[in-house]
Amino acid sequence: ARAWLERQSDTPPDGELADIASAWVVHALGAHDGGRYVDAIEALDRALDRKPDHAAALLLRARLVRDVSGRVEAAHDALDAVPEGDWRAVVAYERGRSSLQAGALSLAIEAFAEASEHDARYVEPRMALGALAWSEGDTERARVHFEQVLAIDPRHAGARSNLGVYAEVVAERPLEAAAL
């Protein structure tokens, strides 16, 4: 696939991929998923050479910076390059992930809440908010977030599993109180 992409022009003929920059992003995703981070960065560079404001390429670049280097500030700088518009929820979510990695829980919670506000159907920020509430011991708030996810996606396995754990915890509470 890489060799084919390297031979393509910026305006491919009908019947082929309409956007070579997007094809490079797909290649970068495959490289990233396969742990070939240098290849992923090279593919993103090719995508951004063809289309410097390619939002998906810029988002993946920020994610790679965060995941590979652990440099949260650099990841946030990379996110600043993503054009506004339809990507605001994803950018906020990625800022939340970076903040969480840096141990800035309050910033992560703000970013996940912002992502949820920008796109009410985006379940990942709500899952993150639920997980953070759970880790803080606020099982009721966690339950609310997981139920919101199921209202959006009734088949979401993570939310279903977390609510199952919640039900087990709630069922054990009277036993704990009686043991005292």
Distance, first to last CA: 64 Å
Instruction: List the total number of helices.
Output: 10
Q: Determine the oligomeric state from the structure.
A: single chain
Number of strands: 0
Radius of gyration: 20 Å
Strand and helix order: HHHHHHHHHH
Look at the helices and sheets and give the structural class. Answer: mainly alpha
Give a quick account of the main beta sheet: strands, pairing sense, barrel closure.
Answer: none
Runs in which pLDDT lies below 50 for 5 or more consecutive residues are 1-18, 175-180
Overall mean pLDDT stands at 83
Give the proportion of residues in helices: over 70%
Determine the strand fraction and express it as a percent band: under 5%
Gross geometry: elongated
Keywords summarizing the entry:
disordered N terminus, 0% strand, 180 residues, mainly alpha
Explain what the structure shows.
Residues 1-18 and 175-180 have low confidence and may be disordered. The chain contains ten helices and no strands. Helix 4 (55-69) packs antiparallel against helix 5 and helix 4 packs parallel to helix 6. The chain is 76% helix and 0% strand. The chain is mostly helical and 180 residues long. It has helices at 2-7, 20-33, 37-50, 55-69, 72-80, 88-101, 105-118, 123-135, 139-152, 157-179.
